[in-house]
Design goal:
Sec-Metab_Biosynth_Hydrolase, 248 residues, 9 strands, globular
């Protein structure tokens, strides 16, 4: 590659850019160029379009890393020409035409569904939409297990909800069919069944997959390991893959 990729970290549902903070700090300390844009969680179509537009404004190659719902977002946004690789962190690696609900439905055993809250929100000129969030009291155990209690409490009351329509929207593209990928499975995940992660990564033929005995917010509990996978992906790309899909 002609330049070291800019690392773009994409957060998931029920979180915001701050969820990446420990990894962001580690990558910046190592001298990498990092961007952590907001994901508005209004729909998979809109969120992917927003991230793709953000990426396309970056001069040079980009490595996209997506956590949780952010994995679905990078799956679609990753078709941008300057994206050279994808890193899935406890994420959804959707196939083209597949929705979050369909992939999750293959392995439904998680603690998330029983602890969701549905709240209407106004839509200008249309019917109200529905926001989905994690019940605040359940958030530390379901979403932020392993995170220090005081941090989990803050994350619980500052979570960014995901609109309900996003669960049923099919992915319009699957960038992993053209771009190399890497993945982290959080084997102690109570938000997404780890089998969802394993299945999606295997189907995508990711270059390598690391299993960590970690909860869903692995970026908070194991930032060094997450940063190492991202920098390892950059090193592999620098060895001459130049964005073509790698197959393990």
């Amino acid at each position: 590659m002609s330049a070291t990729p800019t690392i773009v970290l994409v957060h998931g549902a029920f979180a915001d850019a701050a969820s990446w903070a420990p990894v962001t700090a580690a990558l910046l300390e190592q001298g990498h160029t990092v961007r952590v844009p907001p994901v508005y969680n209004r729909s998979l179509v809109e969120d992917a379009a927003s991230i793709r537009a953000f990426v396309e404004q970056i001069d040079g190659p980009v490595l996209l890393a997506g956590h949780s719902y952010g994995g679905a977002v990078i799956t679609v946004a990753g078709v941008a020409e300057n994206v050279v690789g994808l890193v899935y962190v406890s994420g959804y690696a959707l196939d083209e035409g597949e929705s979050l609900g369909q992939l999750q439905g293959r392995f439904p055993d998680s603690d998330l569904a029983a602890n969701l809250v549905y709240t209407p929100y106004p839509v200008a000129g249309g019917e109200p939409g529905t926001d989905v969030s994690v019940e605040i009291d359940a958030f530390p155990a379901v979403f932020a297990a392993g995170v220090p209690e005081e941090t989990a409490r803050v994350l619980a009351v500052s979570q960014r909800p995901l609109t309900a329509v996003a669960f049923g929207e099919p992915a319009s593209a699957a960038a992993w069919k053209q771009k190399p990928g890497w993945g982290i499975v959080s084997s102690a995940d109570h938000t997404i069944n780890p089998e969802v992660e394993r299945f999606g990564y295997a189907r995508a033929g990711l270059r390598s997959v690391v299993e960590i005995d970690a909860p869903h917010l692995v970026m908070q509990t194991h930032p060094a390991e997450v940063a190492a996978l991202i920098t390892g992906a950059i090193a592999e790309l620098a060895e001459g893959t130049d964005g073509e899909r790698l197959v393990s």
